[in-house]
Design goal:
heterodimer; A: 169 residues; alpha+beta; 60s Ribosomal Protein L30, Chain: A; 4-stranded mixed β-sheet; 6 helices; 13% strand; globular; B: 444 residues; mainly beta; Rossmann fold; Neuraminidase; 7-stranded mixed β-sheet; 4-stranded antiparallel β-sheet; 4 helices
Chain lengths: 169, 444
């Protein structure tokens, strides 16, 4: 199941996730936060943070203990790069995260590797390096809170956070 | 530099604490067997009599009894006998105890004491007796400000522990840890310091930044830690007395996993490489601010910890594919892997006596705390479960503290201690969730 990020579809998938957790795809787990951000907006104004989160996708996921980009991650990052080139005034911070099943110091270093991998991919796609800062959070900021692989999958991530230059929606 | 005075200020001097008398008499007639790898230790029955009080010191007497009894009991080496089992009631500090009465309730050791207020100061005296030989084996007298009362209890506990086990005590010590509150995905983390028994908690930061891995300086007056704030995550120094915060260095990239050298003059830590992919270990001299690179491999090299004599460093590295423990010289020479068991090994910490390296071990989806010798032999697991992480040593090398996390949305970490034998696991009380404990050296 590959997410085509149409606002309504995302919300539907999110609800499915709540109702039947096992139905969710392992690789491309939907992002509840982004779905909520898009709620009621219907059409978010182009170039806004909501536009980015809803229509591009602000995060990619990693395999356990890996910082290599999966084909799905590269697809999302390619769309991010295209969007960022369409809105050259936007600056971003790439946040690296790990799941909670590791030790603190190692996870900080691992999440730095993930942020770097995502950032370098965007740069290779033509986004100017000085528009992208990065930060490593290790396991300190989980996105999903359960104690099972379906949550840890969502926590091994790199999130592209817009830090400036986006249009207000 | 140096904004911080690195003079070894004597705590006793600061506290106006005076040790007026120390009379160490013959060794105890019994030997408390405290083997490291052996079985469960048979706790020694000890009678701690109610401290005699005078001059409005009633509360102080009760507090001292509680602190001492709690310390000795929690160590696992002693069994404080219930006061209602006592036959003899001590009414005069100078009276000779009726040892037959104490033998009858199986007490091996007996503590008597008195406390009174004199000139605004609190004065505490105690005696320790060997019931079998009917001899006084220790006695001490303290005079201090009433606010140091619990410390007197800890110092007294240390004297008793040492006299009966032959091992230095660890009760007059503190723990620096991370106080955690709030929901799991927005956890607020503050630096906090407390006495080793969980009392006197003081938070040092306001929670606006994520703080992790705090470690004491050798004089216990500074902490080095990592802060993840708005900018690049960095290693900082924090002076507990002045509450001043200082960055360790403006490096191109993130710095993390800091720890002081045994002489307090240097901080060892990991720096993220300029390409953002790897982490190597560096040592910074705090006076000259000179930086020395110790590892140089395309890997995650982190969690460095010095041997107590400062001659070697242990650290973790995934250079061989997974996290494993290594040992090297302080100049980075001779980097050798020492962990070869089944699983991943991390967060190595050298014991204060130099004999062991404690670690976190991940195997089969579970997290254990264990120890091994610095050559990698003699691995022993002390505790194992869903998630145990980040051991730290009591200064006498007999007790380890670590944190244990629990799963799920409402789960969170708590501090625990365990004896080096693997027995006597105890939760350490904290106001909320607690993680990343680090034990101070002895304060006295």
């Amino acid at each position: 199941m590959i997410l085509r990020n149409l606002g309504g579809f995302r919300i539907a998938v999110a609800l499915c996730c709540v109702l039947a957790l096992t139905a969710c795809s392992k690789k491309n787990t939907p992002n509840l936060e982004a779905a909520n951000a898009g709620l009621g907006a219907g059409a978010s104004s182009p170039g806004s943070e909501a536009d980015f989160a809803t229509n591009v996708g602000d995060r990619i996921y990693f395999v356990v203990d890996q910082a290599d980009l999966t084909p799905e991650a590269e697809e999302i990052l390619s769309k991010q790069a295209a969007w960022l080139q369409q809105y050259p005034g936007v600056s971003i911070q790439m946040e690296g995260h790990s799941d909670e099943r590791g030790t603190r110091e190692y996870n900080i270093a691992l999440s730095a590797r993930r942020a770097t991998a995502a950032r370098e991919f965007l740069i290779a796609q033509g986004v100017e390096a000085n528009r992208i800062s990065s930060i490593a959070y290790g396991k300190e900021r989980p996105a999903a809170l359960c104690d099972a692989e379906q949550c840890w999958t969502q926590n091994r991530r790199a999130v592209t956070v817009i830090t400036g230059g986006a249009r207000t929606s | 530099m140096p904004k911080f005075t690195r003079l070894a200020t004597r705590r006793n001097f600061l506290l106006g604490l005076s040790l007026l008398m120390l009379a160490l008499a013959p060794r105890a007639s019994f030997a408390l067997e405290v083997d490291v790898s052996g079985g469960r230790i048979n706790p020694l029955p000890i009678a701690i009599t109610p401290f005699l009080v005078g001059g409005g010191a009633e509360e102080a007497g009760a507090t001292l009894n509680e602190v001492i009894s709690n310390n000795l009991g929690r160590s696992g080496y002693f069994e404080p006998l219930p006061q209602n089992s006592f036959i003899e009631q001590i009414t005069d500090f100078n009276q000779e105890p009726r040892f037959a009465d104490w033998r009858q309730i199986q007490a091996k050791a007996l503590v008597t004491g008195q406390v009174y207020v004199e000139g605004g100061k609190i004065r505490v005296e105690f005696k320790l007796f060997d019931v079998n030989s009917q001899q006084q084996i220790a006695a001490q007298q303290f005079s201090t400000s009433p606010k140091n009362l619990r410390r007197i209890g800890h110092l007294t506990s240390d004297v008793i522990y040492k006299a009966l086990t032959g091992i230095d005590g660890y009760f007059d010590t503190q723990i620096v840890f991370v106080d955690e509150s709030g929901p799991k995905d927005q956890r607020v983390k503050k630096l906090a310091v407390m006495d080793q028994d969980g009392f006197n908690v003081r938070t040092l930061t306001d929670g606006s930044e994520l703080v992790v891995t705090p470690r004491f300086s050798p004089n216990s007056q500074e902490i080095t830690y990592m802060s993840i704030g708005q900018g690049t995550p960095r290693v900082y120094l924090f002076n507990i007395v002045t509450r001043q915060k200082e960055i360790v260095g403006e490096f191109a990239n993130m710095s993390f996993a800091p720890r002081y050298s045994p002489d307090g003059q240097r901080v060892i830590m990991s720096l993220l490489t300029t390409d953002g992919r790897n982490s190597n270990i560096y040592e910074m001299d705090l006076r000259s601010r000179q930086l020395r690179q110790l590892t140089n491999t395309p890997a995650i090299n982190t969690g460095p910890s010095y041997a107590p004599d400062g001659s070697q460093i242990t650290f973790e590295s995934d250079r061989g594919g997974t996290q494993q423990i290594y040992v090297m010289g302080v100049d980075g020479s001779g980097q050798n892997r020492i962990s070869f068991g089944n699983g991943r090994y991390s967060t190595p910490v050298w014991s204060p006596d130099g004999q062991y390296i404690a670690f976190t071990k991940q195997a089969g989806g579970r997290f254990a705390i264990g120890v091994m010798k610095p050559d990698g032999s003699g691995e022993r697991i002390l505790t194992e479960g869903y998630h145990n992480e980040g051991p730290t040593w009591a200064p006498n090398g007999r007790v380890l503290m670590f944190f244990r996390d629990t799963p799920g949305e409402n789960g969170g970490p708590q501090l625990y201690s365990v004896d080096i034998t693997g027995y006597n696991e105890q939760q350490v009380q904290t106001p909320g969730f607690g993680s990343d404990p680090a034990w101070s050296p002895r304060l006295n």
